[in-house]
Amino acid sequence: MVAETPEAVAFLDVRPVFRGHTLVVPRAHVVTLPELSPDLLTPTMTLAQRVSAAVLPAFDAQGSFVAINNTISQSVPHLHVHVVPRTKGDGLRGFFWPRTRYTDDAERDSYAARLRAALDR
């Protein structure tokens, strides 16, 4: 355990991307971020923010990668925030998965409209 609050804990990942890779986890059982209640969102993300700041001096990192998987690629069915220390030349290049493009502005705008509609529900 590297840190804990009444609502969340932080501990080192047993299969780290890089040494110092930390998981921040709410104590209450929640599977995905959309299920996280507002009263747990703030303390969980505040702890993730503290850890992302601490990995810099702790591991001579120049930055961090912070990520959450929701269902797909989620190896454990409990919400966890990955905080991975990063240094220039560490081998990761931005997002480390395939990228795509929108066909044109109209397609991009249609995706934006769909997301706005879902947010308004």
Describe this structure in words.
This protein has 121 residues and is α+β, with helices and mostly antiparallel strands. It has a single domain, classed as HIT-like (HIT family, subunit A, 2-Layer Sandwich), CATH 3.30.428.10. The protein has 2 helices and 5 strands, in the order βββαββα. The longest helix is centred in the middle third of the chain and has 22 residues, at 38-59. The N and C termini lie far apart (39 Å).
- Radius of gyration, taken over Cα atoms and rounded to an integer in Å: 17 Å
DSSP strand count: 5
- How far apart the termini lie comes to 39 Å
Topology order in helix (H) and strand (E) letters = EEEHEEH
CATH class: Alpha Beta
CATH architecture level-2 label = 2-Layer Sandwich
In percent, how much strand structure appears in the residues?
15-25%
- Report the CATH topology name: HIT family, subunit A
Low-confidence stretches: none
Average pLDDT works out at: 94
Largest sheet: 5 strands, antiparallel
The helix fraction, in percent, is 25-40%
Structural category: alpha+beta
The 3D shape can be described as: globular
CATH superfamily, by name, is: HIT-like
Strands side by side in the biggest sheet = 1-2-3-5-4
Total domain modules: 1
* DSSP helical segment count: 2
